[in-house]
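Worked problem 6 (solution included).
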Amino acid sequence: MAKINNKPAEAYAKPHTMSGKEVTGDLPEMSVESGRDYMNKMNISVGNVNKGPYAGVKTDGIEVRGRSKQTKGKLARGPMA
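Solution. The predicted structure is:
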């Protein structure tokens, strides 16, 4: 089981750079946008449903030989090396 650490924040080192200098508060400007705008930019998905551009079902391929025993189709779709 992990040990519980009850030390106050002052017990730890102050934020510093790798050379030991103090970190300044100069942070880059962050744009403020609503959560809706942020989510509209993302291509999120749940299960097999996504909101991005749907490529559709691939219907091209090459016809394979020996089809008398096949049960799942006559086209092969992949790298045929």
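Discussion: The first helix runs from residue 35 to 41.
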